[in-house]
Specification:
Layout lengths: L1 E4 L19 E3 L2 H10 L9 E3 L7 H7 L3 H22 L19 H32 L1 H6 L1 H8 L29 H5 L1 H5 L22 H7 L18 E5 L11 H15 L3 E7 L10 E13 L2 E12 L2 E8 L12 H19 L5 E5 L5 H8 L10 E6 L7 E2 L1 H4 L28 E2 H8 L2 E4 L2 H7 L6 H6 L4 E3 L27 H14 L21 E5 L8 H13 L3 E5 L5 H13 L6 E4 L4 H10 L2 E4 L9 H7 L3 E5 L2 H6 L15 E3 L4 H17 L1 H12 L6 H14 L3
Parallel strand pairs: 1-2, 1-3, 4-5, 4-9, 5-8, 9-10, 10-13, 13-14, 15-16, 15-18, 16-17, 18-19, 19-20
Antiparallel strand pairs: 6-7, 7-8, 11-12
Helix pairs in contact: 11-12, 12-14, 17-20, 18-23
Main location: plastid
InterPro entries: Glyco_trans_1, GS/SS, Starch_synth_cat_dom
Subcellular location: Plastid, Chloroplast; Plastid, Amyloplast
């Protein structure tokens, strides 16, 4: 078909010539050709000869533009502008071969061009300003993770071509294939594997002494005092200019008296403040279960008497260091502290709290900050302001940290009388009465509420959990009333106590640059628990490509908060998928404990499942090192240290989005958190919700092994230390202390 278009323009209402099959049409204007194309569909395979204004268009361009007026108009105008420019050039006096020409459009004047360029410049400046604001907002929102993921930028800067990047559409993690050298990558290195393993004493399930009870060469305080953290870049911490004297009064301290994360927080925060130049002391009950070998330089200190039940009981103090932190252990003749939480908790901690203040009173020791933890020590704030501040203790200020709002410290009014206070004076809604019991006979008190009211500052252990507690629960009214002194500060972990490169519990240490030791730890645990073990010598030159069984670990207290129903489901799901699962933890409820012990017996001969219904600090270290995935399916989680410790040891977290888990774990497939992806996250509370995350993790482990190993290395480099959190606490201390 031939389409001829005349050079001269025609009127808009020009009629379209009648088309006949097989005839060549001659058009005299662009209006006609547009109307013609509306009537006949031009297919890309058809060939046209177009002359005139549209001579530069191909038949394919005509076909593509016929149903898009804007595109067609843009194409036509661009052709006209080209003709106009050529015409203007031809009209110049100094142009050779000048011919008379009537342009299609008026030539743009210099003044008009300047005006147009200035307008374009204004639009460009406005666009730049907008983009700068976007970048600024992004940096403000992601400042912490920009620092944590500098490794991504370093990896990117090393690239010489696109092939060196692990491309994926399902994860924002960017890695350099050079990091795949974390495993033996040459035949020579692979041949060294047997010699590296020669010093490992492999355990067996039939061993008389379980592998986690074997005597280690060093204790934790020896590790802290003699070995520096070499698992990552050294961060120099400058001493604060105005150091404080901080006394922590607590029911737990890791590793000597630990049940949950409280013990880790006290030790980690104490050590971090020491490194910043502050004076720190921890006061802790001298539980019968404390291993004195873990207390360095344990010596008897002061003796005095403290009030209890109308009389004065003798108290002995013992000083020492735990994990490098100075500690005072409180002991009395009464059998208050047989084991952690294995006694009448209310009466025991009422006595302990007053004994700590009494010691400060008789020795004249006046810290700047008395940092109390949980409901156990909340009575101390009431004792301080209603008794001891009226005596000689004038300087201290009280900071309360709530680690779990589920525990309110409920007690009777007459129990407060035990420690020398008049319990009836606190039975008001603006002091310590438990609002759930108003109108009951008798009404009860909440020690935690009293601590909130009487403390100078109140914190909880993550920003998200702080927001959640302001919106739910009966304590929300009290927290809202004291909102000005309530904040959430994310916990950290002690990166020296939890350091796979120096951990004395592990059969072989490792770090993010060399993960072979992690494979050794995994096989060590598999053999010791009677699970099917990976073969380290099989195709050693490409260890990350060979078949391995994913090991999922779950280290938790077996309570409803931790998602017991999801843990039960995970056991069966993981078993069906051919993976391995190890549970470590106890249940305070005898019925739950009996249920899991029965399940443990059921899986005793399984090669995939082990349920360890107790807690061992040494075994916990080994499981973190052995695990490929760490499961944290909590219904609510104030902060959670398990996911951070797991990442420190290279275990990828699978978590429910709540509390501190939402502040620390970001789904690798969530485009909203580009370059933050470090785990697998689900939102619901059902078994199906858990499966969406857990099944993805297991599939990625099998199908994307190189990507998985790089993700393991990346999460080990994330900074979950106490450095940032300690800085926030120091700011808080300075805001309330007496200057």
């Amino acid at each position: 078909m031939l389409i001829t278009v005349a050079e001269q323009r025609v009127k808009e209402d020009s009629a379209v010539p009648e088309r006949k099959h097989g005839m060549a049409l001659v058009f005299t204007g662009d209006i006609w050709i547009k109307q013609f194309l509306r009537q006949r569909v031009v297919r890309p395979h058809e060939h046209f000869t177009v002359r005139g204004v549209f001579s530069s268009l191909t038949s394919r361009e005509i076909a593509l533009n016929q149903h898009h007026p804007l595109k067609w108009s843009s194409t036509r105008n661009s052709v006209k502008r080209s003709r106009s420019v050529r015409a203007a050039a031809a009209n110049k006096s100094d142009s050779p071969g000048r011919t008379e020409y009537s342009p299609l459009e008026p030539v743009e004047t210099t003044e008009g061009k300047i005006t147009r360029l200035l307008a374009a410049n204004e639009r460009l400046l406005a666009r730049i300003t907008k983009l700068e604001k976007v970048v600024k907002d992004f940096r403000a929102e992601n400042m912490g993770y920009l620092k944590d993921f500098n490794l991504v930028e370093q990896a990117t800067s090393k690239r010489t071509d696109d092939s060196s990047v692990l491309e994926t559409t399902t994860s924002p993690v960017v890695v350099d294939n050079m990091s795949l050298g974390t495993f033996p990558s040459t035949t020579q290195e692979a041949n060294q594997i047997p010699s590296q393993l020669a010093g490992v004493e492999w355990p067996s399930q039939s061993d008389e002494i379980p592998f986690w009870k074997r005597k280690h060469k060093t204790t934790f305080h020896e590790v802290i005092s003699s070995v520096s953290d070499n698992s990552g870049p050294v961060v120099k911490i400058e001493a604060d200019r105005n150091p404080s004297y901080i006394v922590h009064v607590t029911a737990e301290m890791a590793p000597v008296a630990k049940v949950g994360g409280l013990g880790d927080v006290v030790t980690g925060l104490g050590r971090a403040c020491l490194e910043r130049g502050h004076k720190v002391l921890v006061m802790l009950p001298f539980y019968d279960c404390i291993d004195t070998q873990e207390v360095e330089d344990l010596t008897e200190a002061e003796s005095f008497s403290s009030f209890h039940r109308g009389s004065w009981l003798p108290v002995k103090m013992f000083s020492g260091k735990v994990a490098g932190v100075p500690v005072l252990l409180v002991r009395t003749q009464e059998e208050f502290f047989k084991g952690v939480y294995q006694f009448d908790e209310v009466e025991a901690y009422l006595f302990f709290s007053r004994a700590c203040l009494e010691r400060m009173q008789v020795t004249g020791d006046q810290p700047d900050i008395i940092h109390i933890h949980e409901w156990h020590i909340s009575i101390l704030a009431m004792l301080y302001w209603d008794i001891y501040h009226h005596l000689s203790l004038k300087k201290p200020r009280i900071v309360l940290t709530i680690h779990n709002m589920e525990h309110y410290g409920e007690c009777r009014v007459e129990q407060i009388d035990i420690c020398g206070l008049d319990g009836s004076t606190y039975s008001t809604i603006d002091r310590a009465v438990d609002e759930r019991t108003i109108g009951h006979n008798p009404e009860r008190l909440s020690l935690l509420k009293g601590g909130i009211v009487f403390s100078n500052a109140v914190t909880t252990v993550s920003p998200t959990y702080a927001d959640e507690t302001l919106c739910s629960g009966w304590m929300a009214n009290t927290l809202l009333k004291h909102r000005s002194k309530y904040t959430g500060i994310l916990n950290g972990i002690d990166t020296k106590l939890w350091d796979p490169s120096n951990d004395p519990c592990l059969p072989m240490q490792y770090n993010a640059q060399n993960l072979f030791g992690k494979l050794v730890c995994k096989k060590y645990v598999q053999l010791g628990l009677g699970l099917d073990a990976d073969n380290l010598l099989e195709d050693g030159s490409v260890l990350y490509k060979r078949k391995q069984t994913p090991l999922v670990i779950c280290i938790t207290r077996l309570v409803a908060q931790k998602g017991i129903h999801l843990i039960r489901h995970a056991i069966s799901n993981i078993r069906e998928r051919g993976a391995q699962f190890v549970l470590l933890g106890t249940a305070p409820d005898p019925r739950v404990q009996a249920e899991f012990e029965q399940m443990s017996q059921k899986f005793q001969k399984s090669k995939n499942i082990r349920l360890m219904n107790f807690y061992s600090e040494d075994l916990a270290h080994m499981l973190y090192a052995a695990g490929d995935i760490v499961l944290v399916p909590s219904m609510f989680e104030p902060c959670g240290l398990t996911q951070m410790i797991g990442m420190r040891y290279g275990a990828i977290p699978v978590v429910r989005r709540t509390g501190g888990l939402a502040d620390t774990v970001f789904d690798v497939d969530d485009k909203r958190h580009k370059n933050k992806g470090n785990g697998f996250v689900f939102d619901g509370i059902t078994e199906e919700s858990l499966d969406t995350a857990l099944n993805r993790a297991l599939s990625y482990y099998h199908e994307r092994r190189e990507w998985w190993e790089d993700l393991t290395s990346c999460v080990m480099k994330l900074d979950h230390s106490w450095n940032k959190s300690a800085e926030r606490y120091v700011e808080l201390y300075n805001s309330v202390r007496v200057q």
